[in-house]
Amino acid sequence: MSTLLSLSNDLAAAVARVAPAIVSVNARRRLPSTGIHWRPGIVVTAHHTVRVDDDITVSRPDGRAVRATLAGRDASTDLAVLTVQDAELPVVEVADSTALSIGHIVLAVGYGPRASLGVVSALGGRWRTWRGGDIDQLVCADLVLYPGFSGGPLVDAQGRVVGMNTSGLSRQVPLAIPTSVVTRVTDELVKSGRIARGYIGVGLQPVRLPETMTRALGLTGTAGLVVVNLEPDGPAARAGLLIGDILIALDGKPVGETDDVQAALGPLRAGARVTISLVRGGARTDVELTVGERPQPRR
Amino acid sequence: VSAIGLDDSMVAVAAGLRRVTARVIDGDRPSHGAGVVWTGDGVIVTNAHVARRHATVVLADGRRFAARIEACDVRSDLAALRIDASVQPADVGDSDRLRVGDLVLAVGHPFGLSGALTTGLVHALGPHDGLAPARFIHAAVRLAPGNSGGPLADASGRVIGVNSMVVGGLALAVPSNVVVDFLRRARVIRDGSPLL
After folding, report:
1. Distance of alpha carbon B89 from the chain centroid
2. Do A103 and B10 touch (CB under 8 A)?
3. Which positions ≥6 away from A134 have C-beta within 8 Å?
4. Does residue B152 contact residue A151 with C-beta atoms inside 8 Å?
5. What does pLDDT average to over chain A?
6. Is B113 at the interface with chain A, CB within 8 A?
7. Catalytic: B7?
8. How far apart (Å, rounded) are the C-alpha atoms in residues A21 and A60?
9. Which of B76, B95, B148, B176 is catalytic?
């Protein structure tokens, strides 16, 4: 058999292997999205494609529609988890995305099934989404995510799932959420229905601190975060923070970028106390506040 | 040979190609282009539109050099830079042997990604309407601005073109043989015979 024909057959086999566990998710008008039957009774999909919270159905590859319940969603990692009652639906085989190399052949699979072929284009370390989600690994594929492919699997040449595709986290390149993140977020959503993240209710913007100020106040950092927005009655407002305050440290750890604050707050739970060091009117002051919980966006 | 075997060859070819793909920074412009390490004595080929004045070259291993612009041809959109370093050069292929349907790979730095790989097929060979008489490799490969000046390679990892623009969704690359002619004419490389 020719190499080309053999490759073609192998790709078709990889799609056939994953396809029985891939469903369409009907949770928005017009176009359904794709869902992955991750574990018995658990379907994961892309949060941004789930526009309603009730009356969601998923359709199996044979066309049969099954009722699904939204177990929870996490906008920061663009994941939504549905529960379904369907004993016959097989589950996907999940593989470790850290075994990927640039150049590996991968397929994006959408409901139907439909497939799109490409290679792993770029890999990187831990990164934070524009909505503050913490993603273990950057996985970019050189392939086309056709309409409705978001929420579907990125699969390797053996038909194993290495990530969930989404167009919701970058407009420029198709990204995949690594399997480790999907499993971790799914576990927490199934357990508690939401991802709890520390929240203080401020909008911040980085500013460079003038040398005269750092010298006068004995600061080690050269940047701070100026408060440009305050959630009315949010944790920060209640603790007395004002617009124009410059945050320089959280619990003694210097902050110079908004990422530093998200990294510090991420693991904290509602009720935890933090000490915020800030510069107000040219003088240093410390404010204690009680961390709240980020209000869940509806979509 | 199966998809798994091909997969491993693709990974190996991609790794080799990424090693000879440089990042080219022109002055203070925020956008970066790519470049190909063409010779072992430090000639880096890129697009003329990538390196206009002061080029800084960052090699795949992270080493950073101020480069001299030795030759520049706006018409063919090629520039030859030189850095003072001994480097592992690209394996340059014969672009006249390309056929429509050949598998090709591109490496560049689009959207802030570093050394990103895209793949596709040779779509057509020859001049492009409106850009004649220059010859191009037309490839169905996804490119973005950070790919400019980077390599287009065949399935063996031999560089057969320098990516220079995107027209109608297709990549247009300057064939490697045109690049070699440019380097010889500009006397950046010698073709063996003594020059008179």
Report:
1. 12
2. yes
3. A76, A77, A126, A128, A266
4. no
5. 91
6. yes
7. no
8. 8
9. B148
State the pTM of this model. Answer: 0.77
Which of the 8 DSSP states describes residue A99?
G
b/e string for A164-177 if b means 16 or more Cβ within 10 A?
A: bbbbbbeeebbbbb
Q: Indicate yes or no: CB of B14 within 8 angstroms of CB of A11.
A: no
Q: How many CA atoms lie within 13 A of A175 on its CB side?
A: 23
d(Cα A173, Cα B107) in Å, to the nearest integer? 15
Q: Which residues partner with A24 through β-bridges?
A: A34, A59
Q: Which regions of chain B are under pLDDT 50? A: 1, 193-196
Assess contact for A90 and A20: CB atoms under 8 A: yes
Interface ipTM:
0.73
> How many angstroms separate the Cα of B162 from the Cα of each of A7, A113, A176, A226?
28, 37, 29, 46
The DSSP result for B81-121, as a single string, is EE-SS------B--GGG--TT-EEEEEE-GGG-SSEEEEEE
Chain A residues within 8 angstroms (CB to CB) of chain B = 3, 6-7, 10-11, 14, 101-105, 118-122, 124, 140, 142, 157-158, 170, 172-173
Q: Quick check: is B49 catalytic?
A: yes
Q: Which of B1, B7, B8, B21 to probe by mutation at the A interface, max A CB count within 10 Å?
A: B7
Q: Any chain A CB within 8 A of the CB of B140?
A: no
Q: Is B110 on the interface with A (CB under 8 A)?
A: yes
CA distances from A102 to A85, A120, A212, A299, B107 (A): 38, 5, 48, 33, 11
pLDDT in tens, A32-45: 999 999 999 999 99
The per-residue pLDDT for B7 is 83
Residue (of B113, B118, B50, B38) closest to B79 by Cα position:
B50
Closest CA to A221 of A244, A241, A178, A250: A250
Q: What residues are paired with B136 via a beta bridge?
A: B126
Closest-CA residue of chain A to B113: A122
User: What would the 3-class secondary structure string for A184-214 be?
Assistant: HHHHHHHHHCCCCCEECCEEEEEEECCHHHH
- Give the model confidence (pLDDT) of B61-112 as tens digits: 999 999 999 999 998 999 999 999 999 999 999 999 998 888 999 999 998 8
More confident call, A73 vs B192: A73
Element (H, E) at A249: strand A246-250
Distance between CA B164 and CA B158 in Å, rounded?
17
Task: Spell out which residues of chain A touch residue B113, defining contact as CB-CB under 8 Å.
Answer: 121-122, 124, 140, 173
